[in-house]
Amino acid sequence: MSEKDHRPLLLANALLTDPASRTQSRGGLLIAWGVIAEIGAAVTPASAGPDVEVVDCGGQVVAPGLIDMRAVTGEPGAEHRETLATASQAAAAGGVTTIVCTPETHPPIDDPAVVDFVLRRARDTAIVRIHAMAALTKGLKGQEMTEIGLLSEAGALAFTDGARSIMNARVLRRTMTYARDFDALVIHHTQDSDLAGEGVMNEGEFASRLGLPGIPVEAEAILLERDMRLVALTGARYHAATVTCRASLDILRRARAAGIAVTASTSINHVTLNENDVAGFRTFCKVSPPLRHEDDRIALVQAIKDGVVDAIVSDHNPQDVETKRQPFAESADGAIGLETMLAAGLRLVHDGSLDLVTLLRALSTRPAEILRLPGGRLEKGAPADIIVFDPDVPFVLDAARLKSRCRNSPFDGARLQGQVSRTIVGGSTVHQI
Amino acid sequence: MTKPATSYPHRHLLGIEGLTERDIVALLDEADEHIAFNRQVEKKSSALRGRTQINLFFEPSTRTQSSFELAGKRLGADVMNMSVSSSSVKKGETLIDTAITLNAMRPDVIIVRHSQAGAVHLLARKVDCAVVNAGDGAHEHPTQALLDALTIRRNKGRIAGLTVAICGDILHSRVARSNILLLGTMGAQVRLIAPSTLLPAGVERFGVSVHRNIKDGLKDADIVMMLRLQRERMAGAFIPSTKEYFRYFGLDEEKLRYAKPDALVMHPGPMNRGVEIDTAVADGAHSLIREQVEAGVAVRMAVLEALARNLPNV
């Protein structure tokens, strides 16, 4: 950290938006030594000492940096798609100050040495905070549990098999049971691969019209229902990785009513797009689980509002031309999202379906709480992971100008509103326009 | 060595379940005398002269089988070893057929080991002689619990009031089940230490305390009883790896320091060094592992003698 980094920074004339306390107020925020030193209406340029760098935010929103619980980063093993460095630059540009990367690397993060490698590479090359999740099963094969204790000690923040579901209930039960002893968070993708079969998009009228094999929502719901029973049986800390349909929301509501403490996230794609976006066989909209019916999307947004869905993730999954420029059924799943998550999410604010505080809770406060990270709140002493953004600035997304190494954005060419003007991580500005 | 006929009143020894403190004490007292007897140069008695003992092992066990064999021979019995591979025969039907066939040979006592819980009880109902359970599946292994008790009593002078921590694969362990029953009957406090994947459902209701953290479980323990981890439980089935198991549940000198300074370490053997126990502990000053083997022969002699006294026509 340079001397300049030690200089206190005052963000003046801001709309201070704290999703943790659900408050918005006018004022300023003083950052010193990597944490929030002062906050409130009394924090003004006049209150600042001579050594303080003052930035006039011009009434823009100042909020906690976003915490993305689910991003594929490509390193090690797929650096041509993304590196920790390029992912972090995309994140900083999008207002994401913490990335939690999935273990879908080559080799997968199923060994303490790989966790160590990722964390060291992140420390040396990334400009935002990067945490690693480790695999739940060795080789992500769904058969044998990983060294959950040793991986936790190495720094793994949670355990997941990424976009793969553990189909063997006995294996998942034992894994959950073992994970509970270490108070480890299990994050599970719920899609019954047998029922999904050869499906490539949401099952329904639209898939039939396109002549594409469909995946019914029951593929997700059946596994989620099973998982709720296993959580009840084992007492594991469980987070449903990506719920995408109304049926899953009903299951979560019932589970919670029965006293099962589970959390869930959905992806930015599933709350802002629907199955119709694959029209014209747009492979950039081919994700897993598939984009659902508009009714499901509306239900998801409502679920974010009423807290049934806790968090929104980018599900950032960079895919290169080779894997995406294919016939729809043969192309890889996945879309990039780190850089566009906030702007896409603001669509929900602009169309009146969510207020800004609720959106930011799902993007920062709740992920921090679920992962037991210190960020996600604007208060004295909290880490100075801060974003400054104008939610109203309109722009047309040009994927060619994104910082991610891949261009598979479902929002390419989309009209969006909201741009991050400054991203601060640990008190240091890592992105600025 | 003549004993009152009431010292052990049962026809069989099928498990610790059903035994009273008095039954157990009677066997331990008798076994104590056999320890001294076995240390003599002349260690052959005629207590079981003319009796036939069949060791019927449906699964391999070098230690237990030879311990029973030696016990029988030292008491003057005619001992026959029968090893039956349970994998090559259909269970159930063959077990009963075997029992009927053996019974026709008029043995006096049959020692049975079988991979299925309850198999020994089934066989006992089909024969006229005494039956000793030498381990049935994950159910019971009563002579192991008795030899453990004898070892504890000889070193601590008592069992009541001691804190005994049993650590390892409780789920699949007949040794643990018999020990939980015996130690509870004798007034010891039993703690179980294991990852949740290796604990049976409802184990909290066994009258024990359950610990997932070995340091908590070992705190101020008088006796630390380690269990063998079977190879098939390793590598991802119930635990992630032997490396991780040793890190969190293996007994080494550092973890042993949480127990009392005079704590004693036991293991039913054979040991996986570096998996459930560190060599320094296994061979260290706290270890009773070799003493357990000696106690094993003595306990089995006591059991055989007690059962022989209860046979008809004595």
TrEMBL record, chain A:
Domain Dihydroorotase catalytic: from-to ranges: 59-245
Leader sequence segment: none
Keyword Zinc: yes
EC number of this enzyme: 3.5.2.3
Pfam family, one: DHOase
Amidohydrolase domain span: 350-431
Lineage top rank: taxon: Bacteria
Class in the EC hierarchy, top level: hydrolase
GO molecular function: dihydroorotase activity
InterPro entries: Amidohydro_3, DHOase, DHOase/Allantoinase_Hydrolase, DHOase_cat, Metal-dep_hydrolase_composite, Metal_Hydrolase
Keyword Hydrolase on entry: yes
CDD domains in UniProt: DHOase_IIa
Keyword annotations from UniProtKB, A to Z: Hydrolase, Pyrimidine biosynthesis, Zinc
UniProt-listed PANTHER family: ALLANTOINASE
Protein name as it appears in the record: Dihydroorotase
Species this protein is from: Labrys monachus
Upper lineage: Bacteria, Pseudomonadati, Pseudomonadota, Alphaproteobacteria, Hyphomicrobiales
TrEMBL record, chain B:
Catalyzed chemical reaction(s): carbamoyl phosphate + L-aspartate = N-carbamoyl-L-aspartate + phosphate + H(+)
Binding sites annotated in the UniProt record for carbamoyl phosphate: R63, T64, R113, H141, Q144, G269, P270
EC number: 2.1.3.2
An example molecular function term from Gene Ontology annotations: aspartate carbamoyltransferase activity
Annotated positions binding L-aspartate: K91, R174, R228
All copies of domain Aspartate/ornithine carbamoyltransferase carbamoyl-P binding, residue ranges: 11-153
Domain Aspartate/ornithine carbamoyltransferase Asp/Orn-binding positions: 161-306
UniProt pathway annotation: Pyrimidine metabolism; UMP biosynthesis via de novo pathway; (S)-dihydroorotate from bicarbonate: step 2/3
InterPro entries: Asp/Orn_carbamoyltranf_P-bd, Asp/Orn_carbamoylTrfase, Asp/Orn_carbamoylTrfase_sf, Asp_carbamoyltransf, Asp_carbamoyltransf_Asp/Orn-bd
Enzyme's top EC category: transferase
PROSITE patterns documented for this protein: CARBAMOYLTRANSFERASE
Keywords tagged on the record: Pyrimidine biosynthesis, Transferase
Pfam family, one: OTCace_N
Family recorded in the similarity comment: Belongs to the aspartate/ornithine carbamoyltransferase superfamily. ATCase family.
Subunit structure: Heterododecamer (2C3:3R2) of six catalytic PyrB chains organized as two trimers (C3), and six regulatory PyrI chains organized as three dimers (R2).
Function, in words: Catalyzes the condensation of carbamoyl phosphate and aspartate to form carbamoyl aspartate and inorganic phosphate, the committed step in the de novo pyrimidine nucleotide biosynthesis pathway. Reversibly catalyzes the transfer of the carbamoyl group from carbamoyl phosphate (CP) to the N(epsilon) atom of ornithine (ORN) to produce L-citrulline.
Database matches in PANTHER family: ASPARTATE CARBAMOYLTRANSFERASE, ORNITHINE CARBAMOYLTRANSFERASE, MITOCHONDRIAL
Protein name, entry field: Aspartate carbamoyltransferase
Organism: Labrys monachus
Taxonomic lineage from the root: Bacteria, Pseudomonadati, Pseudomonadota, Alphaproteobacteria, Hyphomicrobiales
Gene: pyrB
